[in-house]
Design brief:
Layout: H1 2-16, E1 23-26, H2 30-41, E2 48-54, H3 66-73, E3 76-80, H4 102-105, H5 117-130, H6 135-145, E4 149-153, H7 159-166, H8 175-188
Parallel strand pairs: 1-2, 2-3, 3-4
């Protein structure tokens, strides 16, 4: 696409001017990443360094093709929405909409309100509690346990939410947890891609 070439030309100018060191993509497909990489190999612009895509327990679509592309092409994954816009924290279980929550304030949760999504989110949140963990910590620990994740971007509104998200670093992600999560995933797939 000519827009890919135009985008790469702009980023090439920014790198050469010393305004940025690297550039990344967001919400991109395998084909899109490979197009940018192919053009960079032709000398059109800088090489893609990172990809920022959603990845969480209810959206593991990155694993289908992008994980291979990023691994083979040395492109880092910067995960956004590891808590599925808060649906993997447990606060929205059973249709709850707490005062001041994002779903109560904004109309942006459609990705996480697909058919059967609430049941699957509740199942993962219940699974987290069965391991003695807060759902948010469990969901964040899952993301951090993945070998292809370079960084996880959390969106905390309060200090308590930030502390819960950061507590995932201390979770020992066990083989039992992996098997339990994979069993759910095999049955329900990606309800919120």
């Amino acid at each position: 696409c000519s827009s890919d070439l135009e985008t790469l030309a702009v980023f090439d100018e920014l790198v050469k001017a010393g305004k940025i060191r690297h550039f990344g993509l967001s919400n991109e497909s395998s084909w899109g990443v490979m197009r940018f990489l192919s053009e960079a190999e032709k000398g059109v612009g800088p090489r893609v360094a990172s990809l920022q895509n959603a990845y969480n327990l209810v959206n593991r679509s990155f694993e289908v093709n992008l994980a291979e592309v990023c691994a083979r092409e040395d492109v880092s994954l910067l995960v956004y929405s590891p808590l599925a816009q808060g649906y993997l924290t447990g606060k929205y279980d059973h249709g709850a909409r707490p005062q001041g929550s994002r779903t109560q304030l904004f109309n942006r949760g459609q990705r996480y309100e697909t058919p059967n999504a609430a049941e699957v989110q509740l199942e993962y949140n219940t699974l987290a509690r069965s391991f003695g963990l807060e759902p948010a910590s469990f969901a964040a620990a899952f993301v951090l346990s993945r070998p292809f994740v370079t960084a996880s971007i959390v969106g905390a509104t309060t200090l308590a939410q930030l502390e819960t998200a950061l507590s995932a670093i201390d979770v020992d992600w066990t083989d039992e947890m992996r098997k339990a999560v994979d069993a759910v995933h095999q049955r329900v797939g990606n309800p919120c891609p």
